[in-house]
Design brief:
Blueprint lengths: L62 H11 L4 H6 L2 H13 L5 H13 L14
């Protein structure tokens, strides 16, 4: 579940978002003030008359792009950097250098796993788009 106001992950049973203090609700169809359902075309909440805040979510990462980056540049960890896993990307570069290129098999296999759907989320937990 993500906070409608700040977009950060919120605990499902939380009374308010720990980051911004507003009521967390799934998606963009809830008032940030009273948490009542709203329609996408509404500018103000019908229940409490609060002006609705619309937060643009980050674009989802492409599964195809991540998979192809893993297959062709996996030894350099490019697919992991693309998905936001910076530490693992650096580790993949290090393993590839230490093993004189043999460690690139790791990235190649991960590229296949991404395309197969086994690895299907980025570092923020967002699902990869098709």
């Amino acid at each position: 579940m993500y906070c409608r106001n700040c977009g950060k992950e919120a605990h499902p049973q939380a009374a308010a978002c720990l980051s911004c203090g507003l009521l967390p609700k799934n998606g963009a169809n809830f008032c940030q003030n009273c948490a009542s359902p709203t329609r996408p075309q509404d500018q103000v909440c019908a229940k409490c008359a609060a002006k609705l805040i619309f937060v643009a979510k980050e674009d989802a990462r492409s599964k195809l792009a991540a998979g192809l980056l893993g297959i062709f540049l996996g030894g350099l960890g490019v697919h992991r950097f693309y998905l936001g896993f910076i530490g693992i990307g650096i580790l993949q570069i290090t393993v590839t250098l230490i093993t004189f290129g043999l460690g690139s098999i790791w990235g190649f296999i991960e590229g296949i796993l991404i395309l197969a759907g086994t690895i299907n989320k980025d570092a923020q937990g967002q699902p990869l788009k098709e």
